[in-house]
Amino acid sequence: MTSETKSNLARLGLMIAVYLILAARIPSYYSQPGIAALLDSAVLAGIIAIGVGLTMIAGEMDLSVGSMAAFAGILSIQLFPYGMVPVLVIVVLFCGLLGALQGYCIYKLNISSMVFTIGTLIALRGLTLVVSNEKTVLIPFENIAETDFLSAKFFVFSIPSATLLVLVLLVDFFSRRTLWGREIFAIGGGRGEARAAGVSIRRPIIVAFSISAALAGLAGALLSFRTGSASPLGFEAVLLEAVTACLIGGIALAGGRGSILGVLIGLFTIRFLVSGIAALGAPFWMQSLATGALLIFVIIAEAAIGYVTRRRRMARALTA
Amino acid sequence: MLRMSGIVKSYGPTRVLEDVDLAVEAGEVMALMGENGAGKSTLVKILAGIEPADGGTISIDGAAVSIRSPGHAQAAGIGYVAQELSIVESLSVAENVFLGDETLGFFRSAASLARRARPYLERVGLDHIDPLSLAEEHSVAERQLVEIARLLSRKARIAILDEPTAALSETEIVRVKAAVRTLAAEGCAIIYVTHRMPEVFDLTQKVTVLRNGKSFPAVETAGLSIGDLIEAMLGRQLGQMFPPRAAHAGEEILRLDACRASGLKAPVSLSLRKGEILALAGQVGSGAGAVLRMLAGVTPIQSGSVTLEGGAYAPSGIAGSIARKVLYCSDDRKRDGIFAVRSVPENLSAPALSAVSRFGLLSPALEGEHVTRIARQFGLGERFLGRLAGNLSGGNQQKVALGKWIGLDPKILLVEEPTRGVDVGARSEIYSHLRKLADEGLSIIFASSDTQEVLGLADRIASFFHGELVRICDADDVTAESLTRDVTRASEAA
């Protein structure tokens, strides 16, 4: 068993433990509509976390995802008359293109992606306000029924939550089993080393930021269609939850480590905790407090395990 | 097979390579030797596409090639095993073997990469390791071997190995040497950069020596004596570069008894007297720097005891050593030595903020006094005081890095590579300032891989090889040749 599998299993164990502890006290946790609601609550942060996670693996971080989602939301509602599926495709492609451009700039200017994406985070929000005329845009009331299928449930899945799960599998496969995906891991794990070995730095950065933006666009469009409206000020808090999911899911801030499946595990660990606390009727601040405590617990545990492993490895090297 | 001719390279005003020629045939191992700063690393980096050359031509099999990026070098069949940039620790061994290889197709599975990597790993003697395991789980030697396996997998026709054994133990070196022979047997032309004499005579057929950025025609290793080789490498005129030694040294101030620390393979015992300059001579990874870092509190003293002026001394960190007035000037000037984006006066007063403050507030008058005193002591002209430290020449930066500590009135100054990246003129100035400080009662220990510097500046010399103290002698009893033999363990090659 590789160390990555072990670490993912430990995280899965933690997620299941959180689920079981809360399920013991909240009956809806094991009812069909309850589970469906849990899955649905994870869609927005989940789809976005996949992309943010990918940029973190590349040793970068895309902070512009919230604004990108809001931008895509406004755009997709405004273009709604052209039909939902074509609009979805166009919006996702357009956001992907913007992301690729963002990646190219970060590569070409050789500046920290944190700095650059703070810039685009602010600028895209401004653009969204311009495009929306600073107003919330709505799907016309007579058409609102057309979006009902997004809320329909098939067993416990809705189309958005199924999309999230399919995307996790796709991007996980992409990151583990393709040349482009492995390049993202390589430049995150050791930029100089990878470059010296002849790995292109440009391509993985562009690919990671493009996927991140496209997924943010998709999340923004899907959620806006489901609610039938989009606010130019929406999706502001999602970045924090996405990054938290990545960190709890084992993606290293320094890059090169972690997996997309891990992000999904981290995401549901948070969702189970937060929804559970809400269902128990605890005040709102408890949710933040518990999420923060969970993150700190996971990071301390990682550090402790890492310390023990390194000691063992050193001991082995000395006896060898 | 490979011919580099007339290679020229400058960094700013400093000319690192002038008109360098190098030629290697297929199946041949060519040693590239020279003192630190002779330009070896720059030359191989040009060939590997990491640094661009300012002039000169490179041809392979008679055809001129242009190499401006690692990608170009790879396309030309050149593989590079670097000293520091090696493998990506967070990837598997198999992925590191095929890192940067785009010929394996877009889709790849860990298992298929492992299967393809295995034959290459076997050929470098790594048949016992799991190709799926992460690279970080393996020793430095095994990582070097993984890199050589990468060269094999690339079918590299020209391989550059830049000090592949600098950080390895004897048994590990044997494995690397075997892997290098495998490479050569497959018809690869190999450029082997090293400081170690045994490897040169054991492994290589020819030697090219670089000295001060100039190359000498390659000679057959077989017809060469160690003496010839050392003479070719050094050959520098000492001239009036070094100040006269101390007439006499004071009482003992520091004593190390059987001390061990990370980077040392055997306990080290030595002593230092007041006003004495002690050199720790050795190449990268020799342990000379490790002794300084231990004394500075950077790495803990694992066993043994240190006595400072009769009392026990065990600093628990840099702050601990500073409190005892034992000050350490690292060899990584950019990272540890100066605040590049701050002015020279700010740099000089930085460690002594409490001395230049009144009631917890900085006093410009005190600071000015402090700075002027140091600047005078270290020959830093008035006109440099308004500049940012990062914009100074290497020599003046080093004066700032050393001078800031002098302001604290140290008892012992620990200096690692006192003149790395410093031009000749500034070197001799720094030597005379250090000697003057020693004459005033300061004790200095410096670690250096520069033979002339060790011989010229030190009162006593402790030579290190491979984490072990070889011997301690008075500088008068040491010659360039005997010292070079000690720090390269030439005796093992004979």
Question: Would you mind describing this structure in some detail?
Answer:
Chain A has 320 residues and is mostly helical. Chain A has a single domain, classed as ABC transporter involved in vitamin B12 uptake, BtuC (Orthogonal Bundle), CATH 1.10.3470. Helix content of chain A is 73%, strand content 2%. Chain A has 13 helices and four strands. In chain A, strands 1-4 form a two-stranded antiparallel sheet. In chain A, a hairpin with a 2-residue loop joins strand 2 and strand 3. In chain A, helix 3 crosses helix 8, helix 4 packs across helix 10 and helix 12 runs antiparallel to helix 13. The model of chain A has no long low-confidence stretch (mean pLDDT 93). Chain B has two domains: 232 residues, Rossmann fold (3-Layer(aba) Sandwich), CATH 3.40.50.300; 241 residues, P-loop containing nucleotide triphosphate hydrolases (Rossmann fold). In chain B, strands 3, 6, 7, 8, 9, 10 and 11 form a seven-stranded mixed sheet that branches. In chain B, helix 8 crosses helix 17. The two termini of chain B are 31 Å apart.
Q: In terms of topology, how is this protein built?
A:
The complex is a heterodimer of chains A (320) and B (494).
Chain A: H1 3-23, H2 32-41, H3 43-57, H4 65-78, H5 84-109, H6 113-131, E1 137-138, E2 153-154, E3 157-158, H7 159-177, H8 179-189, H9 191-196, H10 202-227, E4 229-230, H11 238-248, H12 260-279, H13 284-319
Helix pairs in contact in A: 1-12, 3-7, 3-8, 3-10, 3-11, 3-12, 4-5, 4-6, 4-10, 5-10, 7-8, 8-10, 11-12, 12-13
Chain B: E1 2-11, E2 14-24, E3 29-33, H1 40-47, E4 55-60, E5 63-65, H2 70-75, E6 78-81, H3 93-97, H4 110-123, H5 140-154, E7 158-162, H6 170-185, E8 189-193, H7 197-203, E9 206-211, E10 214-215, E11 219-220, H8 226-233, E12 252-260, E13 268-273, E14 277-281, H9 288-295, E15 303-308, E16 311-312, H10 318-323, E17 326-329, H11 333-337, H12 344-349, E18 357-358, E19 361-362, H13 364-377, H14 394-406, E20 412-416, H15 424-439, E21 443-448, H16 451-457, E22 460-465, E23 468-474, H17 480-488
Helix pairs in contact in B: 4-5, 5-6, 8-17, 14-15
